[in-house]
Amino acid sequence: MPIVLTPVWSNGVQKLKVTSAPPSKPAHGLLPPALDDNVHAQRCLAQLRSKDKSIEKYIYLNQLKDADHNMFYRLCLANMAEFTPLIYTPTVGDACLQYSQIYRRPEGLFISIKDKGKIGQILRNWPRKEEARISVVTDGSRILGLGDLGVNGMPISIGKLSLYVAGAGIRPESTLPICLDLGTDTQRHLDDPLYLGLRQRRVPMDVMDAFMDEFMEEMAAAFPKLLIQFEDFATDKAFGYLERFRDRHPLFNDDIQGTGAVVLSGFINAAKLASAASGRPLSDHRILLQGLSDDEARERIYLVDSQGLIFDGRGPMAEHKKYFSRKDYNGPPLKDLTEIINYVKPTALLGLSTIKGAFNQSVIETMSALNPRPIIFPLSNPVRLSECEFHEAVEWSQGNVLFASGSPFPEEEFNGRMMYPGQGNNMYIFPGLGLGAILSRASKVTDSMVEASSLGLADALTADERAADLLYPRIERIREISGAIALAVIRAAQKAGVDRSPDLRTKSDAEVLAFVREHMWNPQ
Ligand SMILES: NC(=O)C1=CN([C@@H]2O[C@H](COP(=O)(O)OP(=O)(O)OC[C@H]3O[C@@H](n4cnc5c(N)ncnc54)[C@H](O)[C@@H]3O)[C@@H](O)[C@H]2O)C=CC1
Ligand SMILES: CC(=O)C(=O)O
Ligand SMILES: [Mg+2]
């Protein structure tokens, strides 16, 4: 029986009335005589397409999902390339920025620092008939590249979970979006009369740590089969909470592990194309390669931040930068990106800087002079923070670039040849990784499972996609890809001994794949 949440107001405070509605075959006369399912799908698409602004489309789709989730996901699956930029990046970035203005109705759980001591009680208020199996949890402290948005980060949890349903067939009723409210340090939100979160600055780290300990313990108690995805925590917290909880709970951090996996996958495919063009072996790439020791691989990676090339002699640095800090450079600080490229001579350039224009004409021309097929991945989100645009990369590299960006760009024609931008976004990874972890009942998410998801994705290109120089499969095939990734993840979980579905161990790959497909939810 579907659960219905009705907001009611009492003394200026909103409460939710929770009721169970009978399976709805509306009473005769309530539906128009000629309401046909297929025609209604066309009607919904026409309503969507009649809106000019993407944020209006987002609001429309959000309401459609709430009113008729079968129709929403049916349309989504049939129009993935059109829907993904609306329910996810870049539009979800605008939805977050404007969340306190566009808010309509409850869609997930808000748990605030004021709830400390009674988090378990609040989790049990989640009014779904089905046990939660996957939760995306953010604290809103680094939403895409947009900074600390506080509780305005909720749409990112909702958007990622919509992609779990659309992309991997996770049952909608088993998804749980959560936004933690530990304050915000963004004055604009604190000053906004419509802001939906606590009007206070972020709590100190020791207070947050104690809150997170209680939160994670209560999540495991309330939802014993739950997989947790940490999303868009500011970088230090992202690393810290991944390390703190990863051996105790089934969880992964999408921005660290999902992104690492999707970049590796695109890089493997790009490096094959680049090596074919240059005649240089794969192991020559200056970034990361299979078959090398940790130290040999690390040697090939150079990290640049807002102060330039990161090297030991530069002075104190954040903990997470130390591993890749160069020991072999002792000159004056190298700040300019073109200058750094001329020093390093990289084959690949990855951007996660949130700086629009960081990959300018000089950067791309220098990369192109060094490499017949330069690998250039501007990965920052949303689109307006991308380090460069696809058409710029195509033009400045004379059509030779191997390109993937965090947010989508339109295809480009160069000298009569169509060129397709890859979308190097963790959305290719987390649905399949999550599905594999859930179906194998993994007690934790190991690095080997994340690596398997990456290699599974890299292998998923069809001959046709390879011939078109694609680095990632077409998004329309997301269900098929997620199935292949889930199989790879289940096998890795079994190998690591963290699976708790013994029946799957004795099945062949074809049988496990059939099992995965059978468990994908489909809109009616
Ligand atoms: N494509 C994808 O799947 C993903 C993309 N991202 C995107 O990556 C971006 C960064 O996210 P985080 O790493 O979490 O943020 P962060 O704030 O921790 O890192 C940003 C880094 O950029 C550096 N930086 C700033 N200005 C720079 C400049 N001019 N040149 C070089 N480096 C500069 C900073 O020093 C810092 O190290 C965001 O836009 C986010 O949306 C994040 C996760 C997944
Ligand atoms: C894609 C993603 O997770 C991010 O930009 O944060
Ligand atoms: Mg993220």
How does this model look, in words?
The chain is α/β, with parallel strands linked by helices. It has three domains: 3-7 and 39-249, Rossmann fold (3-Layer(aba) Sandwich); 258-426, Rossmann fold (3-Layer(aba) Sandwich), CATH 3.40.50; 429-518, no CATH class. It has helices at residues 37-49, 54-67, 69-78, 80-87, 91-97, 99-102, 119-123, 154-168, 187-191, 205-222, 235-245, 254-278, 294-299, 337-344, 361-370, 390-396, 430-439, 447-458, 463-467, 478-496, 502-505, 509-518; strands at residues 3-10, 13-20, 109-112, 134-138, 175-181, 227-230, 251-253, 304-305, 308-309, 348-351, 375-378, 402-405, 412-414, 417-419, 422-423. Strand 13 and strand 14 (417-419) form a beta hairpin. The longest helix has 25 residues, at 254-278. It is globular, with a radius of gyration of 23 Å. 1,4-dihydronicotinamide adenine dinucleotide is lined by residues 142, 144-145, 235, 255, 259, 262, 304-306, 352-355, 358, 379-381, 385, 406, 424-426. (S)-malate binds at residues 142, 381, 425.
